[in-house]
Specification:
single chain, 5-stranded mixed beta sheet
Length: 271
């Protein structure tokens, strides 16, 4: 139905509310949506105004989300306006756990993305992260994930292992980035301009995307390790030093996937 056709003869009050709802959801023409909403506001039926208000709330939420996402990609927009073609976001996960590998991801997103709900992985539920992980992988121009083993974390120390994981992720990208946005750090040994952003996974869309990919990847590893080393609760705490994990360590001792250089594990390993 066109907006002009609706204006010529549409009587909203004669339509079932479910049909009006369907037309509002499907309407690509803003003029038609406005016409339907105005008709609902004049409609004497009890549910008509509630339907209009609900649709307006959803529309306002979508506009707010669009503004939020635009802010997340504002720095990338300025870089592109300055001549940069491909920007990679880089982040890591797994610095603090007592067990499991350290994981980093690098993601190059296209100029236009459809990632509603994109945010720091720590702010999202597992279902939200996994939905966004699939969308990021489907839309990314390039994406790479790198792991650093427990043995290398112990050998290098956790900071050097973090930088190694990030460097490996960038090196594994199929597309060479022109600029890298990194959460809080600068990656050594990378001949590409970089910008370190404190709390970058909450402030920049490209870094947030990398944080989600890295988190989903590492969580899957920890669930697999839970089946190989039952009793420690890796699937629930992902290797972090929770009370339940520390109690399991005291009861069962460290496994081959525990970081021996970390205090709570080292103390037990020396006993």
């Amino acid at each position: 139905m066109s907006a002009s056709g609706a204006a010529d003869g549409l009587d909203v009050a004669r339509l079932p509310l479910r049909e009006i709802r369907a037309q509002l959801e499907a309407a690509g023409d803003p003029a038609l949506r406005t016409l339907l909403l105005r008709g609902l506001e004049r409609d004497p039926r009890r549910g008509a105004r509630a339907l209009a208000q609900a649709f307006e709330r959803r529309a306002a939420a979508r506009r707010a989300e669009s503004r939020r996402l635009a802010k997340l990609f504002a720095l990338r927009g300025r870089l592109v306006a300055g001549g940069v073609r491909h920007v990679a976001g880089v982040d890591e996960v797994g610095v603090g756990p007592l067990a499991g590998p350290l994981v980093a991801a690098a993601v190059v997103l296209p100029a236009r993305v459809e990632l509603p709900g994109l945010d720091d992985s720590k702010r999202l539920s597992r279902a939200q992260r996994e939905r966004l992980d699939g969308a990021i992988r489907a839309q990314a121009l390039a994406l790479a994930v790198a792991e650093v083993s427990v043995e290398d974390v112990d050998r290098l120390n956790v900071l050097r292992a973090t930088l190694l994981a990030m460097r490996r992720a960038v090196a594994a990208l199929a597309l060479h980035p022109d600029h890298i946005l990194v959460d809080a750090r600068t990656i050594p040994g990378i001949d590409v301009p970089q910008t370190a952003i404190v709390s970058g996974d909450a402030r920049d869309g490209s870094i947030a995307a990398a944080s989600i990919v890295a988190k989903v990847h590492r969580d899957a590893i920890m669930r697999r390790l839970d089946t190989l080393h039952p009793g420690y609760g890796f699937a629930s705490h992902k290797g972090y030093g929770t009370c339940a994990h520390l109690a399991a360590l005291a009861r069962l001792g460290p496994t081959s996937v525990h970081r021996r250089s970390f205090g709570p594990v080292a103390q037990l390993a020396l006993c």
